[in-house]
Amino acid sequence: MKILQKYIITDLFAPSLFGISLFTFMMLLSKLRDFIELIINKGVPAEKVLFLLILILPAILAITIPMGFLLGILMTYGRFAEDNEITAMKASGISVLKMLTPIIAVALVLSAFMVYFNDTILPKSNYLYAKNLFDIISNRAHIVIKEKTFIETFDGITLYCDYVEPKTNIMKKVKINIREKNRREPIFIFADSGLLVSNEDEMELILYLYNGSIHFFSTSDVRYDAGTYYFGTFEKLEKSIDMNKGLEKARNFKKGPRMLTSGELKQRIEKEKFEPLRRNLLIELNKKFSIPIACLIFALLGAPLGILLKHGSKPVAIAVSIGIIFLYYIILYLGNSLGLTGKISPFLAMWLPNIVMGIVAFFLFRKAIKT
């Protein structure tokens, strides 16, 4: 029996590694364009971008390791069934339960590791990623500018532009909304072009605007409530943005829920009185355990499904695993939405996908035993 267990585990290793690599590459591919743009168009040093890439890997692996493990199980047991090895094992008196025991053992070990990974490595990497990204933005503020996107990074200012020239970072058709504490209404600025420049010595940003107009209500005018409205034109306008406030926020950087360990989350939950925020913290706490346990659920689901499919080819296994993963995350997203609104408990919100998939796995397991 030990030979059989070793054989199954050894056979599982390569396809699982392939699955993790495949899904990690697919997820990195969606981020790669932004990282390349930081180097080529934004002038960020390659080593800083590479460090960001390394820091974002744990967040990706937290998702792709269970996904790749599922793919590996489907390919392994699908190949066993396709090559009639399942039939040979049954003929030798080996039950389906004994065939699944090695996979369940591996899944338990992997789930335990993923709990540790999600509770220690992932929060630290998320925190370091946010800190390093903020440092880069502080020194090269123009990297946050994206065309056809409302930018609210800067305190009291919303910025929008139709197009950004890749080499010069000059913005075209710029629209600015400035909100000041002593004004009842915002100031609107429209310009043909603009450029955001960092001044590290003075710890400020300078926004240069060219050929535009300013539109605003006069807050001191007695006729303001009657709709008094002023506007003016300009050839060149400079707007200073103080970065000291932003850097002070960075120094006192408050960790978000995804940057906290389970112990830190529990402490914040005890102190939090605002119920919506408390629910969000509870959801993040449960997520640290529910998603790692998905490795075990995927094992209980994937192994009997691979036997029943009787097909171990990569295309079939990839298609089935993507379908299962898609369903899992749809249920997770639904549970998250219901949990945040208080319609279901945070515990049920995060464990709902495992419960649903576990029920499906139970019926597949029974069917696999009968075949």
Layout of helices and strands:
Blueprint: H1 2-40, H2 46-82, H3 85-91, H4 96-139, E1 157-164, E2 171-178, E3 187-199, E4 204-216, E5 230-242, H5 244-251, H6 262-271, H7 275-309, H8 314-340, H9 346-370
Antiparallel strand pairs: 1-2, 2-3, 3-4, 4-5
Helix pairs in contact: 1-2, 1-4, 2-4, 2-7, 2-8, 4-7, 6-7, 7-8, 7-9, 8-9
Largest sheet: 5 strands, antiparallel
Order of helices and strands: HHHHEEEEEHHHHH
Strand order of the largest sheet: 1-2-3-4-5
Q: Roughly what percent helix?
A: 55-70%
| Rounded average pLDDT | 81
Q: Tell the overall outline.
A: elongated
Low-confidence stretches: 244-253
Q: What integer value in Å does the Rg equal?
A: 27 Å
Could you give the distance between the termini? Answer: 22 Å
Could you give the count of β-strands?
5
| Number of structural domains | 2
Strand content range:
5-15%
What structural class is derived from the secondary structure elements?
alpha+beta
The helix tally amounts to 9
